[in-house]
């Protein structure tokens, strides 16, 4: 019986010693630095943007404060005009005429102001604000 009590006491003492050592090591370990997640993209503000396609071609989109937009090809020719809106976290372009509205999901905005936009068919473009 004495051996059993002695063994129980040693086991308890050993467990306390291990917990104290673990606490000491945990306190000495450097705290992990959490990287904040990028903020959600609030939608594209009125302005002029370069739009880089997957093949490297760069066109432009101008979003106006009145809720309209204009797409301009690399040669400077207007190819589409219509209405612009930000809906359900996406930028939506409704061209004049019979074409259907197309909405693009937006990535968080990078430090340089650029972001990617992905259409419902999986097309992804890189959007960068034009410098004034």
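^ structure tokens above, recovered residues below v
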């Amino acid at each position: 019986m004495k051996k059993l009590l002695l063994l129980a006491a040693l086991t308890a003492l050993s467990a306390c010693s291990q917990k104290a050592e673990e606490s000491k090591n945990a306190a000495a370990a450097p705290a992990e630095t959490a990287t904040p997640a990028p903020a959600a993209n609030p939608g594209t503000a009125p302005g002029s943007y370069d739009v880089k396609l997957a093949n490297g071609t760069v066109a432009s989109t101008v979003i106006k404060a009145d809720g309209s937009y204009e797409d301009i090809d690399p040669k400077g020719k207007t190819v589409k005009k219509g209405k612009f809106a930000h809906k359900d976290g996406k930028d939506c372009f409704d061209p004049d005429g019979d074409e259907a509205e197309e909405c693009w999901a937006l990535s968080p905005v990078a430090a340089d102001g650029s972001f990617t936009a992905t259409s419902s068919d999986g097309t992804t473009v890189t959007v960068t604000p034009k410098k004034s």
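Residues 2-28 form the longest helix (27 residues).
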